Amino acid sequence: HLSARHIIMFGFCPVCFSSEAALNATTMASVRGGDTGGGGKSGVSILIVGAGRLGTWLAVKFAKNQKDAGGEMREENAKVFLKGSGRRKRVGGDKTRDIVAKLVEEHEISHIESYEDERFQKVMREKKKGKEEFRFDYVFVTVKTYAFDKVVEEMTRANIPTPKIAVMLHNGIVEPIFKGLGDGYVPCVIPQSYDFVDASDGKGERFTIKVKNEEKPWAMPNTDEAKRVHALLTSIGANSQPDEDFEYTLLRKYFINCVANLLSIVGDCNCDGLLDTKDLRTRMDVLYHEMYAALQPSHKEGFKKMPKNFYDVVFSGLRTYGAHFPSTKLDFDAGALLEIDSLNGYVCVRGRENGTPCLEHEKLIQEVQQLVKQRDDKMMKK
């Protein structure tokens, strides 16, 4: 059973293009789905769901392009909204929200906590003029997978229809949250990691977002809709690539996540630490082999593409992250909820279905859940 518990953040931005990265008419047709005739005034409507590291990075990319706008989309059609969760700050502080607030201010991104914010409502009213129903051209979902149900719930409550294209940027494997989109549902594999970095000599006055493995493209299915997403991302200087072997690419990243993310919490270490600590390295081997047996019956097409040295591919891939801490470890240290069901939890579900028990994965989940309880109890006493 895949459950979901929720924290939710949103953003909205009709996108614009810098003169350096402006798209030609053919690419614009791809982004808009074929409309090149006078469409510049209406703009491409985009909703970014998630104000964490990845979502904020994406919003900053759009904001920077807005400042340099010289193409079809002018400033009056290019606004950025980043919607926070509306929750209270966590006990002991909330560094992520504080850093996001500084980035929002620096890049002049309008930050809202509710869809009822008048700035957001004004944009929605303008978009609905003369239309029976306004649908966002693109929704980028960057929240953690445990928040997916809340994404749909809040959009429904605010009368925001299902988007034309939903771009899913998350760890793990989950069922589609927007139904009936077909190829308009575009999952992506993100090989990067995103970290907030103090750019003010440790004073905490200014921050940037450091991207690890930035040269590697986001992978997505090789569909017409995904090609439109690719064109849109190219326009803001974000690296992406439609992939004929997308299911294999998805599984490759998934294996890396599942041998590393939760175990980094138990081992209290970064990716290099996992690989260089004998006991942790042994556990990763067990996790890998259990996962291989559990997933193969359900992901036959992806497994067909796996090279004979796939084991080496996974662990050499993990090594490229070096001293980086997996996102799940960062969430744990920040006192946040964790992605479990879409990572090792999914392996356990498939293992039970296919008669291949995943005892090491189940043990790891229990260990992490106990550490979360200890963390939360400690925070409550402060």
User: Mind summarizing the main beta sheet?
Assistant: 7 strands, mixed
Radius of gyration (Å): 21 Å
What percentage of the residues does DSSP assign to strands (E)?
5-15%
> Mean pLDDT, rounded to whole units?
83
Number of strands: 11
Strand order of the largest sheet: 4-3-1-2-5-6-7
Counting helices, strands and paired strands, the structural category is alpha/beta
Low-confidence stretches: 1-29, 34-41, 71-78
Principal-axis shape: globular
Describe the structure.
The protein is globular, with a radius of gyration of 21 Å. The protein has a seven-stranded mixed beta sheet, with helices on one face. It has a two-stranded antiparallel ribbon with strand order 8-9. It has helices at 25-32, 53-67, 95-106, 118-128, 148-157, 224-235, 246-267, 271-276, 278-295, 300-304, 310-319, 327-333, 344-354, 359-381; strands at 10-12, 46-49, 81-83, 110-112, 138-141, 165-169, 185-188, 193-198, 207-212, 218-221, 240-243. 45% of the residues lie in helices and 12% in strands.
